[in-house]
Amino acid sequence: MPVRVGLLVPSSNTVAEVDFYRRLPSMATLHTARMFLEEVTPEHESAMLDRHLSAAVKDIATLSPDVVVFACTSAGALRGNASEAELLARIAAQTGAETIGVAAAVRRAIAARRAERVGVITPYVESLNDKIRAALEADGLRVAAIDGLGIRANSEIAAVEPERIVRLAAECFERAEFELLFVSCTNFRALDARERIERTLQIPVVTSNQAALEAVLDHIGATTPA
């Protein structure tokens, strides 16, 4: 019987599903529920969590998933790591499934690579970058620097080509001193840019969707990508 992977994504996210279904093994099937979101700001993400998440969780629970991914990095970090943990526990209780948060998965992926000082690039506005920094630092990491593109519309984030993400990483961090680069956002085509960024900067790169995929594959006992 196939392993059912449930994906909770902002309604305007067009990248996470693609990254997942291209890379999940044949033993797994992907099933998505959407939470209304148009703009990626603290205010709009708060509304997504408070008004739209519950219906998406109720919907995804009906398919009896084996594992559920809360696939919004910045919303996971929005209210702090303890709040994220509570959110994941609540989703797990409602769905009966192991629940993975992308923000938490990112921190685990960074720890697995034994990095302590990280650089971060995002498509976000500064107020969300602050939340990402706080979540990482609360877990004991040191953020050397964080730079974002300042994009508010989630549809515009998905439109950023991988080549632009590679250039952004090189422009922001070519001479910075850190051990790993984290590229945030499940609607950013960072996974397609990851290998080129690693070649350019000569350091490990973790992306939101990569970290979540690693966590899912580990849970279902499939091969985890490097």
Structure description:
This protein has helices spanning 16-23, 42-61, 73-77, 81-95, 102-112, 126-138, 154-158, 162-173, 190-201, 208-220; strands at residues 3-10, 28-35, 67-70, 98-101, 117-122, 142-148, 180-183, 205-207. 50% of the residues lie in helices and 19% in strands. It is built from 10 helices and 8 strands. It folds into 2 domains: 3-103 and 210-220, Rossmann fold, CATH 3.40.50.12500; 105-207, Rossmann fold (3-Layer(aba) Sandwich), CATH 3.40.50. The radius of gyration is 16 Å and the shape is globular. The protein is an alpha/beta fold.
- Rounded to an integer in angstroms, the radius of gyration calculated over CA atoms is 16 Å
Top-tier CATH class of the largest domain: Alpha Beta
The termini sit apart by: 27 Å
Poorly predicted segments: none
Largest beta sheet, briefly? 4 strands, parallel
By helix and strand content, what is the structural category?
alpha/beta
Query: Quick one: how many beta strands?
Result: 8
Major sheet: arrangement of strands: 2-1-3-4
Total number of helices? 10
Shape: globular
Return the average pLDDT rounded to an integer.
Answer: 96
CATH topology of the largest domain: Rossmann fold
Q: Please indicate the count of domains.
A: 2
Proportion in helices:
40-55%
**Per CATH, which architecture of the largest domain?**
3-Layer(aba) Sandwich
Oligomer: single chain
Assess the beta-strand content as a share of residues: 15-25%
Order of helices and strands: EHEHEHHEHEHEHHEHEH
